[in-house]
Amino acid sequence: MTTREELVAICDRYVELVSAGDTDGIMALYADDCWVEDPVGSERKVGREAIRDFYDGITKLGVTPVMRRIGPVTVCGGEAAFQFRIDIDLGETKIAMATTDLMTFDDAGKITSMRAFADGEADPDA
């Protein structure tokens, strides 16, 4: 079983890799049998190929989000929830919001699921 400290480090690494637009690095964090629901309420991306396409799609937009964790990672068993600030520069428009991700992990510390609770109205500086 993965320790709390290891799960916190994986969550922090995820934030770093998404900010860097490193799809290969992000995919190294995921288990073979995985899914992503980002944002919550959207269709789940199931399997490594669908998840890779999702992260590649972000990179292909030419807009790399800048993400920074803004609170603790809360770990309970093989699950972790954490909040981060995301800033996106679209040129004339800049977006800043708070997002909370909920991840589940297998015994090897690989992400088996990720749900993103993106809230465009939440003040990321609160």
Characterize the overall form: globular
Strand content: 35-45%
Q: Main β-sheet, in a few words?
A: 7 strands, mixed
Computed structural class = alpha+beta
Secondary-structure element string: HHEEHEEEEE
Helix tally equals 3
User: Helical residue percent?
Assistant: 25-40%
Distance linking N and C termini: 35 Å
Task: List unreliable stretches of 5+ residues.
Answer: none
Number of domains: 1
Radius of gyration from CA coordinates: 14 Å
SS elements, strand count: 7
Secondary structure layout plus pairing:
Blueprint (H helix, E strand, L loop, with lengths): L3 H17 L2 H7 E8 L7 E2 L1 H13 L5 E4 L4 E3 L2 E11 L4 E12 L5 E9 L7
Give structural notes.
The protein contains 3 helices and 7 strands; from the N terminus they run H-H-E-E-H-E-E-E-E-E. The protein is of the alpha+beta class and 126 residues long. It has a single domain (4-118), classed as Nuclear Transport Factor 2, Chain: A (Roll). Strands 1, 2, 3, 4, 5, 6 and 7 form a 7-stranded mixed sheet that branches. Helix 1 (4-20) runs antiparallel to helix 2 (23-29) and helix 2 runs antiparallel to helix 3.
Task: Describe this structure in a few short sentences.
With 126 residues, the protein is α+β, with helices and mostly antiparallel strands. The protein is built from three helices and seven strands. The protein has one domain: Nuclear Transport Factor 2, Chain: A, CATH 3.10.450.
